Amino acid sequence: MYPITNSVEFSRLHRQGLLLPNAWDAASARSFEAAGFEAIGTTSAGIAWASGFPDGQRLSLADMEREISKIVKAVGIPVNADLEAGYGDTPEAVADSASRMQALGAAGINLEDASGHEAEPLYSLEAQQRRLEAARRHAPDLFLTARTDTYLLGFGAGAQERLDETLRRGRAYLGAGADLVFVPGLAEPQTLRVLSRAFEGRLAVMAGPGAPPAPELWSLGVRRVSTGPSAMLRVLGLTARMARELRQHGTSATLATDALSFEQAQHLFR
Which Gene3D superfamilies does the entry link to (predicted)? Predict the structure, then answer.
């Protein structure tokens, strides 16, 4: 529907600090674009839920590829694709997943080190380096974001061990070819300053309800702030509220709250 913008533009947008909302379908993507955002990301959780699956690579790679393709085609701004852990443990699997995203026109990808395996929640540093190197080698045009879940999963025995491991992994991931290190689950200012200095500003975090506003995070040296599944969760909450009102009272006041007109919705896709 719109021309695809490549990773060069997406990289440029990070220079002054980028606020990246996360879409879960073509309609949410167009809504973010219509609001004036210059780039969007996808939320793997939101796409999975909209497709009838829980988060955590329960949706097949082919199904995820199809949904991300719809989003890429619906907008004329760069799209960063959430690839979770790459849909496979091996570098070869990651290379295939990254190549697919590059082929369909994504500007960048997120690749996380959370393995999904109970015995080893995080891939070893060496294994994740090889996986990132494979993504960089087979999809050289993508903006590559290495996500580490040290804070999201509560790695280590305490704050210092968690910080040390995040620093170790972030530096190694940048050395393996990543353009940015994404540390979700962290919003503490002093720690963000330490990480930003260590990564030479190449730091991304996830904001949401209760987190500092994006300008404050940028002032701490953060390069990118994304919203994760927050918007989709809000939509699900509103849908649940509408459903309760209709079921319990037979009324539809909630349906009118912040609703677009039919014509406005149609206009999103003209």
Answer: 6.10.250.510, Phosphoenolpyruvate-binding domains (3.20.20.60)
